[in-house]
């Protein structure tokens, strides 16, 4: 507590202390000493949250301390790392304090009751802390009428509080100090005053006039942005939003708001963004939603809204993002939802929508994402770009009469279940990629009137037993690969009344592989064009049929001739490939031999081989791996020793730089790496360079990489003691790079595939082709900054890596060892391994995280501790990640023979973070050690 008191005094004295000039230094010193005594008062709040009753502020007989720093007007301590309880008595002496900002810290404990004893307080910001306990409502109510409290980001275990009632006397406040305004989080407090946003210079705090308090949020006539998300607000949303003429963004998501949306909610003339998702809102969507002329972002998902959407939704507003998922919205999708010409994402899944998908969506060129599943939509799907197969579950639509899916990209066979649609009259799937035979169940469709499957890849023979198609008027199977004879049943179908002497209104079987004789009915000229492109057919317009034996014999001869030609061509092609491969390898070897004298070798250890032996082993048969930085060969030397040779990829993307500088940077990196001597670092024997080609010769690791072994069928070889030893070895190697190398070395691509295993499964960190010495120029930086699933979150916006980036990647490796899962897996959906572990811990428990191949019953406690270390290393905030030296110590403490205390008693603590990245109030460990 003493460091905090001292820092408070320093801020008091250097930033916002306004003392009269008439006071002497001696008197100032006495007052500062008195303030220090008060801040060190043992009557500070207890850990249970109880607060002593503050003594009266005035009176001769009062036990209160004398006035200390009475002229202190403003105090800014935001964006620090204070982590203690806020002492109530420390605020009592500051009777003139008007502006108090303690946001963006780690204060804990209850809110001090002495806030009500600050008669001049105008602005209060306690957001982004870890305060707990109930909100002292009497204290806030007793604040001056021009006070603006803000604690939107502090966590509290109390029950949800409603939106601001009309009785809370709040008034406008000017912006804080420029530095504090720039660092202050963009979250207004729950009880907002009327904020007149003017471009003029605000007056000093003590000159602001007092105004009547607003009746509700609707009185914020000049508010531009209201953010109340991630609190515990409850109750209905107040009416009167149409009066907010300047409001653009309203965000009250992730609360417990209930009741219907007010009818005038969307009538704010400047409203652009509304976020009310993950609440308990109910009732219909207001019709005024279609009148919001500036609305672009609408997110109301995960509520209980019902009723239809306004028919004019999107016609009067430039909607770009609409998410109304997980509600009970019914009716049809508004036809003009994309009329604004800016719609990019439309998410309406998990509702009760019905009717067709609007045709206007097909013309919406800005649309990039549409999700409509789990609704009751119907209508046509033709003339789109839908892909995949026809689902067998289509048989559940027993009343389906028209199945029109032409002009799409459907593939695969037609499911047999299509024949289970008794009312199907029209089946059109032309111009797709369907293949396989026609399902026999189609013959059961007695109500089938139109069948159009032309321009697909259907094969097999035409259906037999189709005498039930007595309503068939159109049959188009052209441009497929159908074979066999035309079934006689096709010529016995009843005559439609409108066709008189014709059996079918439309018949097209052209461009297939049909054979045999045409039925007599189709030998007339009326069907002359129905069988074109079938050279095996005869009779009618196709010409007379030859003798049966001669025709069969000729066809067999042709087939054998074609087969012989195909086999000969294939043999010539294969022989040509073999010849070319042999010649190419011979050419490469000869070129290497010619250039041997031009290779430059830089050794870092005493070598028992020369560069010539290395060149002779650079053969494709010796390739043992290929990664983002290059290809790896296994070279067995004349003395029987094996080494690993990494041939780095060329660098065409870096030709914009000077080649000499590139070579200097590469040589500087390699020279640094060649000096590394550690038992857990793969030894770099030497480096060979020639023009653009660069070779790094490492010691050979017989058991390959950890990633290949862990995620293969041989993963069972790695029992828990072996995995624990691998984690400790790799941690010691990285700790050496970070703390014992001068300058420190950042690996930049820590992953399980870059941790190699020797013959006894000892782990060594490898692949320094992508490392960068800290402090070197940017031209020596490698082009790779990590692998998918291992990249730290902050890299997305900083594009820089440091030791904390390596620590995050190592945390992912630890999670791989404990769970046996890859860092990115289709089973995780949109999550990575870190998020999957956290969600599984919260939803199912720790037993569902461990690798099933391990003896969990014996080593559960060790595995739990190592898992906690991995989650700590993979924290989303870099400041929370321990150093590698600290990680090594924590892993050593996991050893059951070591009885040292462990701070990771609750494994869930490392997963409990606020959505905006703040630490959990339960997290107390200093991760920066």
From TrEMBL:
Keywords per UniProt: ATP-binding, Glycoprotein, Kinase, Leucine-rich repeat, Membrane, Nucleotide-binding, Receptor, Repeat, Serine/threonine-protein kinase, Signal, Transferase, Transmembrane, Transmembrane helix
Pfam families, per database record: LRR_1 (PF00560), Pkinase (PF00069)
Position of the signal peptide: 1-24
UniProt feature, compositional bias: Pro residues: 52-65, 159-178
Record-listed E.C. numbers: 2.7.11.1
GO cellular component, one term: plasma membrane
UniProt GO MF annotations: ATP binding; protein serine/threonine kinase activity; receptor serine/threonine kinase binding
Positions annotated to bind ATP: 647
SMART domains assigned to the protein according to its UniProt record, in alphabetical order: S_TKc
Annotated membrane topology: Single-pass membrane protein
Subcellular location: Cell membrane
Residue ranges annotated for the Protein kinase domain, each copy included: 618-898
Bilayer-crossing regions: 558-582
PANTHER family attached to this UniProt entry: LRR RECEPTOR-LIKE SERINE/THREONINE-PROTEIN KINASE-RELATED (PTHR48056), PROTEIN KINASE DOMAIN-CONTAINING PROTEIN (PTHR48056:SF70)
Protein name: non-specific serine/threonine protein kinase
Organism per entry: Ananas comosus var. bracteatus
